[in-house]
């Protein structure tokens, strides 16, 4: 199309490529690194005289003047001085002002949501302030920016290059009984001893009720979190008897190192005396307050998104475009499909923003493109999904754009808005890849639609099935329709289930209304819809135990970017 190069210039392709590098971790800038943030609070006020707060901290980051939730800590019951075990992992850019907001909430409900909570205060700062000071302590501000007596401390640490995990499982025998009318309710805390002598909470097990010989659930933790990659770093392990009032009774403690823990891999089961120093001084024949046993130790090699891409994994990019009548007559300037001579429509903007990034990871540059809801010549009937693949474009995403523009005068917009058949079609190809048990192809389906779908039940069923496959689904809502019902497909607000009640195995859907990015750059849209894809790729292959193919044969000198 003669008008399209002008549109490409207006879309600022350089911004899109910059977004791709930042989003997928391919940025060549030495200024980018990952930072771990740990949080603790002190002096939280009680809600009332009868109960202590159940605190949770929500981390938000500012983008385009709005605050978006990044992650949140666990909820600690009945605590006024919580030390959270949750570690926030964020990217640090030296050249950007990254504004953060920490919100402290008192979570009273069982589902840990934020609707029925008490807001206890917030602290705003920049990531640069935290990393430059390494430990930042500030008072929390209440509603109206009045200073409270509560404070929050954020500690930062640059993430080392060791991304391996270790899976650990502990149990105990003959722990001291701290309860009069029942047995102790023990839980275990593991602290990493830092260079300055302070301790950072690594993991807190669940509480095993009424049991002096508990078996705690196994857990996974990165070696960086556990010991900063230093196998000789001291680890302090403490056992408590849980009490509902938050005043947990100390049972005992011991110290070890990851190096010592690893001896379990050599076939020797490690165990430690759980010592209460006060009893050790007072009681002559005191031996211990129980024994803690390491039941299981396993090293888990964690591969990154780049490991799989550099190992030969291809991103198979598929597009589906809504040609239902609700878009309006393409010949009318009010139509969402109207081709303006100088300004691309929303379909083109979304297609180019996402497609320009994905095409770089697809070696054959063959993009299956489906249309749905159109009446197709010569008989102008709505066809089934096998007949709906209107192009398979070669060369680049611009080939898709040109084919899209060329087809509009030849079809009639109709309906309905059914997307389940398209998800099932791509899932069929992903299923074939799954059975190879190799990391060679991962499928991304981009669906562009102007309204709420009419086959929601079938779509939920298709997504639950696809969650078991090497596949992700990106849905961009075009136009000004009410897309609130579409948010349920994105698992961020809860677990999506099929009509039969089966939950998704993993969150594979990202839904974004284009109107939220109408006045932003295409880079912002691309970053939003593709932000979860690298983790989705890694989570799928790691869960299946599938390693990158030919990674050991990869020539380091051929890397196009540095992670």
Explain what the structure shows:
The protein is α+β, with helices and mostly antiparallel strands and 563 residues long. The protein has 13 helices and 24 strands. It has helices at 4-11, 13-23, 127-133, 223-227, 258-261, 277-282, 305-310, 346-358, 397-407, 420-434, 456-466, 522-530, 533-544, and strands at residues 32-42, 55-63, 66-72, 88-93, 99-107, 117-126, 135-141, 147-158, 165-173, 186-193, 199-204, 219-222, 234-241, 249-257, 271-273, 291-300, 314-322, 366-372, 374-375, 389-394, 412-413, 441-449, 471-477, 509-513. The strands form six sheets. It has a six-stranded mixed β-sheet with strand order 20-18-17-22-23-24, with helices on both faces. A four-stranded antiparallel β-sheet has the order 4-1-8-7, with helices on one face. Strand 2 and strand 3 (66-72) form a beta hairpin. The longest helix has 15 residues, at 420-434. The chain is elongated.
